[in-house]
Amino acid sequence: MKYRLLFIILISTGCLFAQEQTGKIFGKIITSSKEPVIGATVFIKSLNKYGMTNEKGFYQFTKIPYGKYILEINSLEIELKTIEINVDAFENNIDITVSEIGNRSLKEVHVVGMTEKRKIETSGFAVNVVNTKEAASRNIQTNELLDRTVGVRVRQSGGLGSQVEYNLNGMTGRAVGIFIDGLEISTYGSSFNLNNIPPALIERIEVYKGVLPAHLSGDLLGGAINIVLKEGTAANNISTSVSYGSFNTLQTDLSANYRNAKNGFTTRLSGFYTSTDNNYEQWGRFSKFIAPDGRVTRNFRTKRFFDAYETTGIRAEAGYSNVKWADVFLLGYNFSDAYKEIQHGQTMGTPYMGRTSKTQAHVLGLNYKKRDLLIKGLDFNLNAAHSLRSTLVQDTVPWAYNWDGNIRTDLNGNPIRTLEGAQQGAPMIDDITRKITNIRSNLSYDIATGHKVSINEVFYGVDRQDKNLLNPITANGIRSFADFSKNVISFNYEAETFENKLTTNLFTKIYQQSVGSTSYKVNAGVLTQEVLKDNRIENGYGLAVSYKISPKVNLITSAEKAVRMPDDDEIFGSPERNVISNRSLKPEMSDNYNIGFRLGTFDFDKHKISFYSNVFGRNIKNRIMPQANELLNNQEIEETQFINISSAQSIGVEGELSYIYNKKLTMMFNFSKFNSLLKQKGSKYYNTQLPNEPFFTMNANVHYRIDNVLQKKSELNLFYTFGYVGSFKTVWPESENFITPTQYAQNIGTSYSFPNRKIIASLDIKNILNAEIYDNFGVQKPGRAIYLKLNYIINKF
Amino acid sequence: MKMNVLKIALFSAISTAVVLSSCKKDDNETNPSENDTRWITLSAAIDDPSNITVGDGNAGTMIYSVSVADAKNPNVTIDAFKNGLAVKSSRTARLQASADGNYLYNIQYTGDDGGIFNKYRVYGGKDFRAEGPEVETATYVSTSPRWLKAAEGVGVAVRAAANAVEFEGTNPNFVFKQRTAKTDAITLDLNDPRITKTTSFDLALSPQEIAAGYYVSRIDVPVINKAGNKVFIGAAISKHNTTSFTISADGLPVFATDNSIKSWAKTLVLDYPSLLNSQIITSNQTRGNTNGYRSTMQYIGTDGNVYQATSGELAGTGGSKILRISSTTNNYDNSYVFSLDAALGVTNSYIETWKYVGNGIGFVIYNVGGQGGYIAKINLNDKTATKYTIPNEATLDFGQIQNITVEGDEVFIAVAPIGGDGNIYIFNRITGQMTVGAKLANEVGGQYIGTY
């Protein structure tokens, strides 16, 4: 609750930002013979803003902060012209005269501007870009948005704030990398993740399947999800939103931008606060009521009683942009804090009371970008973060609970103690502190037009300390410890040839990892220290190719031999995630192939259609997988250990069809189907589907816009989404007791944009049929839920 | 455009219809004819293919039942893997059965429903029908309880988990103090499934044993004595090296295990049905464990005494024994010991399981020095043993075996190599004659682990 107050302060200080003036630039581009230039691009370099002249040669920019700018005018008909302009009034009429190029007879030329989304999606990699714009104003979590993306399956064990696993075309766990602005999300800690970063703070999400570009070259096999947070932009604005709904869920966020056009000083402040009780109703098979004599009532309808979640995040950035010595120089500070009540272990079989985790992270970051560093064509980009993360897991309640929320009683009516003394095991108050350093640097050089070489280096180091606060006497003594660091260096050669139709990206990567452990042993009173070092080097390589058959037909293909080193949590364990250590884990290897195409967007009158499809194959050796509920010691706690399974293969296809009618109706349908097969020779299950992986998913959504409802210039949006997950078995043998049934989830929503465009209100109803839905079998997800959200945006100040 | 709208509309309509119409399947209640057949149920363990251990049996259990005539018929082939029913259990089910073979009892082992008791009526083939309520035992005895039918109609489930080592001193000068075991036991009514009694206590050995680093690490194989007033529970005793430890990441000592010596065989005794007055009895006839592994190790003899097999003796200390717990004192009768090594003339025998079939006669399944899988008929009265010769016995592995059933004078044992086909072997308890019965079809990594 103390963060609520902090947040209010934050909001009020946000309003104190200097009110910067902006103006409008407009004018006419004409040739020396006074002919209007049609379809010329007008570019404000320092703002990275493009405009285009109309059939009368007119162009226009609005909301340009006062200041000096360089305008670049270009077209096939004219010679490139640059002029310096000064924006110092609300309206600035700037007509420009340009010179024609010789006496060339011109054919009709279409200048097709690419959005960032399309540019990335046709880069040769199997990638989908998720825009957050629509979701930002609605009651949609970032995870829900991702879950609707083709080939992505988000599996969340419970409600908001509960643990999430991402499955990209059958690859899962740490084989899939999650990045924030190109840095591993673990740098930011579990208090700043896709569970709590609101879509409003996100510019876009890039989902790479299989082959990864150099700027995300981690040791990953299954692909990566890169969250690109909104950057400080020239447009000064403040936006804020508040959402409230079912299960006492409150979500607010705020962001504010300021840039001084004169000296380039840029600052951005954003934050969020979320809290929820998650006390939703459950009635699934594993919701059990147990009588004192042990008799079980299944499908017991009850509310979750210890599942609240509260999180706060603040991000502040300040620096300079578009100045002489840097394109971007930003120092950032990120604070996040999360509190989670843990209602149960890996499945909802046994409810917990009083087990909580508190996580906190302080992250200091630096981002520096400079084009043409020292010499022309040499670009440098550095992204570094140092974080201090802490996790406090507490579990000391000794009573066994029933799903009705009460302490269980035995045959004599006495309360029952749990077997181990606490909810999940022995009583614990564990404090784990990690110091993480993550540095990603990229140096690239244009050797000739269309040919670029680059070197990319990633360093990730962890220093971890565990404290058992129930045994404070040990706090100052000798203790064993582990350290972990990894480096990935990649070399890239990118070329655009055949009139920019063919884009190729050839790369090789070197993975280096050091794992060290220092342990102390006492034998008959003699203390000895044992230091173990494990240093591994692997390498991989790959190629991504994109061929533009026509501007609307792109062939995309990529192949990579990828390596994933076991992670620190997988080797050393992580109590808050119920994971125990396995120090003999081997790196996982995978050969990844993708071949696909993008068609469109085709315009037929008012209809727009685009289509995307991709076929993929993955051959995996020493697959690292969590082994659930294994009997690993005498304690027999519900814990997981990561193990290598010998061999697996995944082959599949995904596709997406989008249709837009008259800019009013948007429909999207996507599907993903793959076979993730065991390839262990001699096994009965050779060539059968790996258990516990959803392998067939479909999503559809419909969006309809109605203008001028109730008020002129207002906008009403109606949404419907449908999600389907095919049933899948959860154990190897065929058994009807261990099958996750087919899932159907349907959501509806509406948003209303007021005429002034400053306020958007939205209402969402999720799981409208109140269906029994699961991501992980054994953990039921929320039923019908209603949320209302208000967004407020101030653009000009 | 119209087509698209239509498609989406159709699609939504269909999906809505599917959602609305997905009601529960009706149980096919074809009333079976009067169930007077004596069914022999076979259980088979599935290999977990996701690891490199072949034949770990960790991927679940299949069951299939046949008539006695079919079980004895070598022309019949039984394939429990293909035709059987997967018992509810994430890992190897811990199955028990009523003496007449009409009911199977299972407690699921680990997983979402670990510790859940289920009762099935046997109707032949893969037709097993759940009867009565499910009973949760996990809160009392964990999701992986050790349990047996301890008397007809009575189940006893137990669990002992060693508590954290108690120590004194400060880092790094820690001094070992003691280790106790939190012990839990419950009784189950198998006829009207429910828990009838529970108990929980800390189990400690004698002060001398504690000081030496001994502690109870596991208990299993409960049996109720003939008088019906005591329950005997087998135990495994482990030992720490009290002067050797590593210091963990949170600065606590982790004491080393000492495998150089075994404790004398011990048994936990509780009053029945109160489950009170816990007491440990100690044999001076062998240093080994009495908790077995998943299968029955102790029986009430025709003479009323309890006969208990041991295992896990250190190499060179005489191999497995069968000990006697007196029906009059409810304590070890240290004047009696049956040595399988001595009776067979082998060294380092290890009893995987056995079956007492009356009048001092038993059938023992054992390995020698960890190798092979052999069957012998033993006579506890004159301390003799006769080994049978079965195919592939030098490579057979009965490590997972759970049960041997007796019908009339015939003893049924499922024999199949891991991943290989085998047969049911039938032994006459009077004459000792061995005959080969139905063929058992296997699968990669599979094992037949019991007859019921």
Structure description:
The complex is a heterodimer of chains A (797) and B (452). Chain A folds into 3 domains: 1-111, Sandwich (Immunoglobulin-like), CATH 2.60.40; 115-229, Beta Complex (Ferric Hydroxamate Uptake Protein, Chain A, domain 1); 237-794, Maltoporin, Chain A (Beta Barrel). Chain A contains 5 helices and 46 strands. Chain A is globular and about 100 Å long. Residues 1-19, 103-111 and 628-638 of chain A have low confidence and may be disordered. Chain A has a 22-stranded antiparallel barrel. In chain A, strands 9-14-15-12-13 form a 5-stranded mixed sheet. In chain A, a hairpin with a 5-residue loop joins β17 (249-259) and β18. With 797 residues, chain A is mainly β. Chain A is 4% helix and 56% strand. The longest helix of chain A is centred in the first third of the chain and has 13 residues, at 2-14. Chain B has 452 residues and is mainly β. Chain B folds into 3 domains: 35-130 and 409-443, no CATH class; 137-282, no CATH class; 293-399, no CATH class. Chain B has 6 helices and 33 strands. In chain B, the strands form 8 sheets. Chain B has a 5-stranded mixed sheet. In chain B, β12 and β13 (175-178) form a beta hairpin. Chain B starts with a helix and ends with a strand. In chain B, 52% of the residues are buried. The model of chain B is unreliable at 10-34 (pLDDT under 50). At the A-B interface, β28, β30, β35, β36 and β37 of A face α1, β9, α4, β11 and β14 of B. β30 of chain A pairs antiparallel with β17 of chain B, so a sheet runs across the interface.
